[in-house]
Amino acid sequence: ISSSSSSSSSIQEKRIKRKRNKKAGKDKRSEFIGMAKAVDRGQWSVVYSPGGKDGTSFVAKSGLPDKTRPFTVLGIESSCDDTGAAVVRSDGVILGESLASQHKIHEEWGGVVPGLAKLAHEEKIDVVIEEAIQNAGLSSIDEIDAIGVTVGPGLEICLRVGCNKARELAIQFQKPFVAIHHLEAHILMARLPPQKKEQQSTSIDIVSHESNCAIQFPFLALLVSGGHCQMLKCLGVGRYSIIGGTIDDSLGEAYDKTARLLGLPIGGGGGPAIEALAKEGDPKAVKLPIPLQKRKDFDFSYAGLKTAVRTTAEKLCIERNVTSIVELSHQDRANIAASFQNVAITHIEQRLKRAMDLLENDDQIKTLAVVGGVAANQELRSRLETLCTDQSWQMFVPPPRLCTDQGSMSAWAAIERLMVCSSDSPENQKVHARFPFQQQQ
Ligand code: KG4
Ligand code: ZN
């Protein structure tokens, strides 16, 4: 009895402390309201609009590769915690890749520490590029026809490592240069032709490029990653219209925070850890509220679910007479993981179904692309596949390893940009922590 009351009182104390902190935080936040509004208006952000005001007036600022024969692009990605490089051919064949993950570093610190991530990128960038070139069977960067690099959104000091390296190489070797938008790169991965063992067609003009792609514009994209949770109407390269987004946390963030709460190893991302544990749990064991039931719109919210998981887990601690969540049995934690995942995906299904109805009626769109790191999740993939079958929609999702960040996404996005005759100037290219799409009609 005494241990039960002490565990319950320690959890009660934690709750009171949290409430107090929340209250203090609220007062503090009021000082920043004006600034937050300024950010919301986007006055500090550069907008991504490669096709100019009308969305289709592309300019090849650093030239284009010779498109009468297949060309190769070196893609570089360093927006968060993975240093990636890849060489992709214009017909979509991935010729060579290399990825240096920072899992071990971030495992130790319980998440991504920007300063450490930047140092790790600096340490690995040359090796990763060299390895990708070698794996592609090329002997030097001079044999590459163009270079694409992620310039935002992401962690500014990390983006700068990849961007500066790519600018340097593009200037030194005089190659066309493409500044890649990370979210567009995730979205366009749904169009990457399926990888075939044999070499594909050598015809790569714009018409054959379009028909060679796995899906054609327009389509609906569900983008679920660590930093974003959005639904977008995708009209063409550089032309996106955001239908809904998260009002607080992203889905990837919710997975990562829940994994941390349950004391799981999060070095490889909390998502895979929750997915594995959830397989051993009962998704109906723990009752959790589905977010935004009263708001019949297209937005997402995961902050409330995260709090509900924590309070439910704490209540279970009292019931089980343990002092912390990590001390709960494996089965209890598996049940929490499975129940969290079930509700998180139900929320996606509900919002997606509403967006599908809208786009089918207004735009005759019946194709869904599921992209971003969380799209690697098998449970999400299979449940959305069922939803699409029920709605007579087609669904496309990249292979799991191409859903999370890697170099091929920058290379393929660069190919898509070069195909519409769009490139950037490497001389004065900046990186953008925030990088909203120019909203299309
Ligand atoms: O796209 P991504 O690699 O990086 C960003 O652009 O944010 O996405 C990373 C996110 C992380 O939150 C990670 O936990 C999540 O994707 N993730 C998963 C899975 N694999 C990665 N979430 C759920 N299940 C997975 N299998
Ligand atoms: Zn990403």
From TrEMBL:
Q: Tell me if Acyltransferase is a UniProt keyword of this record.
A: yes
Keyword ATP-binding on entry: no
Q: Where is the Gcp-like domain?
A: 94-412
Q: Which GO terms describe its molecular function?
A: metal ion binding; tRNA N(6)-L-threonylcarbamoyladenine synthase activity
Q: Which InterPro entries match?
A: ATPase_NBD (IPR043129), Gcp-like_dom (IPR000905), KAE1/TsaD (IPR017861), TsaD (IPR022450)
The entry's cellular-component GO terms read: mitochondrion
Positions with biased composition (Low complexity)? 1-10
Mind telling me what this protein is named?
Answer: N(6)-L-threonylcarbamoyladenine synthase
Biological source species: Eucampia antarctica
Q: What is the lineage of its organism?
A: Eukaryota, Sar, Stramenopiles, Ochrophyta, Bacillariophyta
